[in-house]
Design a protein that fits this description.
The chain is 48% helix and 13% strand. With 663 residues, it is of the alpha/beta class. The strands form six sheets. It has an eight-stranded mixed β-sheet with strand order 17-16-15-14-11-18-19-20, with helices on both faces. It has a three-stranded mixed β-sheet with strand order 1-2-3, with no helix packed on it. It has a three-stranded parallel β-sheet with strand order 4-5-6, sandwiched between helices. The two termini are 27 Å apart.
Length: 663
């Protein structure tokens, strides 16, 4: 076996240089600790797509790596750094694994200690179930207010001056109103604030003021969290205590001692009970979900969605699709489930003694004050695995609503059921054992011509309907396509203040997949990102508005950029992820302004200091960033005024390759 060196030296063995009987990997030993990079599960080029493939066995290299850890090196435990990995997603049973399941084949009986961000309970639960990990919760990155850039601050000062003049000096007020709108249009900020050319000055000012407040309220990462370490200026004693416990409990776990259990959730959303971190994460009892509190919050968010739709379209939505994810449901106690139930006009019934759900109550039309909405649920693979009880609950609610004797205008689901003679499925996902939206492979390879191909992949992957008393799967090819064809909107909820839609590939895959499916079907529908990071103030935004907000408040924010630059290669990879997600949204939704792509380009590549940082600290990230910007140019999603952009990006790729990145 090749790859390990002693005394901290790291040996890098290229595959072509290795003897046929050897498997190359990277490792370095420091006394009794060996730091090793596990080989890819599949081909490196397909890393993202291969993560969740239930039919793809791990490569021989990964199996050999596991044998080397256990047989050659003789380790006593694995500390798994980085979530999520591939071990817990390898083929095999979802629970109660046997020695023929690949996670067991690779790790055997080795204890796995897995530091896990405290706000991601769903994937932590997967690691518990499939590799028996002790998941030590750690703090999310420290957050800071986004603030406003120079152009935004100038607008804010003008708006403040307008407010002072209002009611005192009408002529000055009117001049200021005109100046504010002109300034916002000239800088391109008016369109991002949602100001239409037909808006009267008062309405335009209201939108601009609301948009500026929205940006200021945005919380951005101030760097990253270093495990077991609090920042020097950390004032929260619970966060300081948590950082200390992270380090102490990692050592205690390696000593084989019991680690106290602790809940998972997002501290920035008010879940102070998850602090201090460093405890062994547990999740909610699914039999209580949605909890009464989660139902109230979910109902309020649902009403905000229909109110916003009514305001934009002058009518109630009749049919919509909701994305339903496992981690989010655990984090919020089931708010997303509650949103859909409330839209249908249903409410859970809870046992007073245990808090567990015992049934569904269908509310009368008079109690709703609006028509019911025909809700279709697109569930993630993790939700399917973890929540068969909730699938059964949703299915029972749909059946109860479908059987109501109500007017067609008040109950579109019952109307459709009467027309077809039976209720068609309303809960859909990928086939059992598979995960994702079905478009990740296409997006990672970039091997597609028109976005309709992505849409078709999304539809084909959502091949199974779920329901019944046990939440079982039934093959239903084409059924989900029919539901999308009738949908007025998609609702995709973001609940975690520590994470936005440019930070995870899953948001692009699910939102972008739906948008591309609409294009494939020749349909139009609203694509809504429902912001519930402050559960008391839910805010639905179009996908274009949501992405614009993240770009202006976080991606190009000097505070965010400076914070990531403190963390070297890992900070550089955050920039690469942001660019990849931004271009991914542009490719799949066609709702992203080229001005946003240009703004990010100028902040990362156009700034000499950031460009030099990327090439110095992480040339691979620099190359990815340049390639993604070139992809946006090639697909006609970005039309910069400077003719030298393509040459500049090609030069960046060449420099990155010179610095050691393979072509």
């Amino acid at each position: 076996m090749s790859g390990r060196t002693e005394k901290g030296a790291t040996e890098r063995l290229p595959l072509k240089a290795a003897a046929p009987q050897h498997f190359p990997f990277r490792a370095a030993t420091f006394g009794n600790v060996t730091v090793a990079l596990a080989p890819d599960r599949g081909r490196s080029a397909d890393r993202r797509a291969d993560y969740h493939d239930p039919t793809l066995p791990p490569r021989h290299e990964l199996i050999a790596f596991g044998f080397w850890l256990r047989k050659s090196l003789g380790v006593h435990a694995i500390v798994h750094v980085g979530a999520h990995g591939t071990l817990e997603w390898l083929p095999g049973k979802t629970v109660a694994l046997s020695d023929t399941c690949f996670p067991e084949i690779v790790t055997g009986s080795l204890p796995v200690i897995y530091p896990f961000i405290v706000s991601n309970p769903g994937e932590a639960a997967q690691a518990k179930r499939r590799i028996s990990a002790v998941t030590l919760g750690h703090l999310p990155p420290p957050m800071t207010g986004a603030g406003l850039d120079e152009a935004q601050q100038r607008l804010e000062r003008l708006v403040d001056e307008y407010a002072q003049a209002d009611g005192l000096d009408r002529r000055r007020r009117d001049r200021l109103a005109k100046l504010i709108v002109e300034t916002a249009r000239k800088t391109g900020l008016a369109s991002e604030a949602g100001v239409a050319k037909t808006d009267q000055p008062d309405e335009a000012l209201r939108r601009i003021d609301a948009w500026l407040c929205d940006l200021k309220d945005f919380a951005v990462k101030d760097g990253l969290h270093v495990y077991g370490r609090a920042t020097e200026d950390e004032a929260d004693p619970l966060r300081r205590q948590g950082a200390a416990a992270e380090k102490a409990n990692l050592l205690a776990a390696l000593d084989g001692r019991h680690i106290k259990a602790g809940p998972a959730g997002a501290p920035a959303r008010g879940r102070s009970d998850v602090l201090p971190t460093g405890r062994n994460l547990f999740t909610s009892d699914p039999r209580t979900m949605p909890t009464p509190t989660a139902y109230d919050l979910g109902q309020a968010a649902a009403e905000e969605v229909v109110r916003s739709y009514m305001q934009s379209h002058g009518d109630w939505p009749r049919s919509l699709v909701i994305d339903l994810w496992g981690s989010a449901s655990l984090r919020t106690g089931g708010e997303e489930i509650a949103q859909g139930l409330a839209l249908m006009g249903c409410r859970p019934q809870w046992d007073a003694a245990t808090g567990r759900i015992t049934g569904i109550e269908v509310l009368p039309p008079a109690a709703l004050g609006r028509p019911r909405v025909d809700v279709t649920w697109r569930i993630s693979g993790l939700f399917r695995d973890m929540f068969p009880t909730q699938i059964a609950l949703i299915d029972a609610a749909a059946s109860a609503v479908a059987g109501r004797d109500e007017d067609d205008t008040e109950n579109p689901l019952a109307a459709a059921t009467r027309a077809h003679g039976k209720i068609s499925p309303r809960i859909f996902g990928t086939s059992p054992g598979t995960y994702g939206a079905g478009v990740e492979d296409l997006l990672s390879r970039g091997e597609w011509g028109v976005r309709e191909e992505i849409g078709r992949a999304y539809l084909d992957a959502t091949s199974h309907a779920y329901g019944g008393a046990d939440g079982e799967a039934i093959a239903a090819p084409g059924a989900f396509e029919g539901r999308i064809a009738e949908a007025d909107l998609l609702v995709h909820t973001g609940d975690d203040p520590g994470r936005d839609i440019l930070e995870g590939s899953a948001d692009v895959a699910f939102i972008g997949g739906f948008s591309a499916a609409l294009a494939a079907l020749g349909r139009n529908a609203d694509v809504i990102v429902l912001d519930t990071t402050d559960p008391q103030k839910p805010k639905p935004r179009s996908v274009g508005e949501a992405v614009s907000r993240v770009v202006r408040a976080r991606a190009v924010n000097p505070r965010f950029i400076a914070g990531q630059m403190r963390h070297g290669p890992r900070g550089a990879s955050e920039f690469a992820e942001t660019v990849d997600r931004l271009v991914g949204f542009a490719e799949t939704t066609h709702a992203i302004s080229g001005a946003l792509i240009e703004a990010v380009h100028d902040a990362y590549v156009g700034d000499p200091d950031v460009r030099a940082f990327l090439l110095r600290e992480n040339p691979a990230a620099a190359k990815v960033i340049a390639e993604r910007f070139l992809a946006a140019r090639r697909r006609g999603l970005w039309h910069p005024l400077r003719n030298s952009i393509d040459d500049d990006l090609a030069a960046l790729i060449a420099e990155a390759e010179t610095n050691g990145v393979a072509a």
